[in-house]
Amino acid sequence: MPIVQIDMLEGRSLEQKRALVEKVTDAITESVNCPKEAVTIIIREMATQNLGKAGKLKVDQK
Amino acid sequence: MPIVQIDMLEGRSLEQKRALVEKVTDAITESVNCPKEAVTIIIREMATQNLGKAGKLKVDQK
Amino acid sequence: MPIVQIDMLEGRSLEQKRALVEKVTDAITESVNCPKEAVTIIIREMATQNLGKAGKLKVDQK
Amino acid sequence: MPIVQIDMLEGRSLEQKRALVEKVTDAITESVNCPKEAVTIIIREMATQNLGKAGKLKVDQK
Amino acid sequence: MPIVQIDMLEGRSLEQKRALVEKVTDAITESVNCPKEAVTIIIREMATQNLGKAGKLKVDQK
Amino acid sequence: MPIVQIDMLEGRSLEQKRALVEKVTDAITESVNCPKEAVTIIIREMATQNLGKAGKLKVDQK
């Protein structure tokens, strides 16, 4: 019963999310031997002012 | 000091969230023996395009 | 499809966890109107040296 | 490679988030001995109707 | 900079985790268009007494 | 009421965790203007076989 949480920057299309959920589910079922039905994926989207890396907000990086 | 994170689909009313926080807090204090004041609950709401189950987005399921 | 993560100090018995999962699931189904089968609960246990409150580790508090 | 998730009430300014990411990153590199580049921070903002404490929603507390 | 958290039951081999990280990373880079280097994956393992489904602990299900 | 979750590799001493909690709490109270008592920090430690970066487990990187 893998539960997957994916945090990423906002701005991905519905098409990209559809591919993401399909491919990540396949990747998990192939590697840890569980049925597709057991995989739940939560996508969380962040604004660039809510992600920090190396002490700086993403919105301030170029 | 239980800290509870609840991820669920968006669309619940304020009344439902009020009941959720009251009842879940009671459920925890009764079962693990801690004071009400020690329980913190974070509710996170997802759009149907941000939840995947069995390789498909919720928004694409019927 | 509520997914619940509960972080709490280690040391609860199997009996307490059994009650926790049963009661929290009931609390959720009653308040947000979803079937029991849709509720998943992850319990995470912490050592007292891995919880901080008000700037101090729990293990250092009396 | 510390990964930090900070859940807090919404309403902080960009200036406050900038300070938060800078200072928390410094606090981590000083205490656990890792380079600044290794620290990632995710800020998650909650509405007052999505935070519960002691069985009550924040929005209902005075 | 996708950050992925995977919660699953304990008991997977090193070989399975190696495959999991490789395949999930590929799945993400292919679907949301980001470099491999940007993907971080945290695996969290649970005992069967720390997972609840439909009101019952996994350890109590057959 | 900031709630902070810090995921990092295992192996830090009690002394380092003590410093981490003290300094991160100060960093937060200074930047987002809240009392020390409102800050909760959860430290989660990972084995090197449970962290993946760029498609490889940490345990396999040199």
Outline the structure in words.
The structure is a homohexamer of 62-residue chains. Chain A has a single domain (3-60), classed as Macrophage Migration Inhibitory Factor (2-Layer Sandwich). Chain A is built from 1 helix and 4 strands; from the N terminus they run E-H-E-E-E. The radius of gyration of chain A is 15 Å and the shape is elongated. With 62 residues, the first copy, chain A, is of the alpha+beta class. The longest helix of chain A has 19 residues, at 14-32. Chain A has one helix at residues 14-32; strands spanning 3-9, 40-46, 51-53, 56-57. Chain A starts with a strand and ends in a 5-residue tail after the last strand. A two-stranded parallel sheet of chain A has the order 1-2. A two-stranded antiparallel ribbon of chain A has the order 3-4. The interface between D and F is medium-sized, with 26 and 26 residues. Strand 3 of chain C pairs antiparallel with strand 2 (40-46) of chain F.
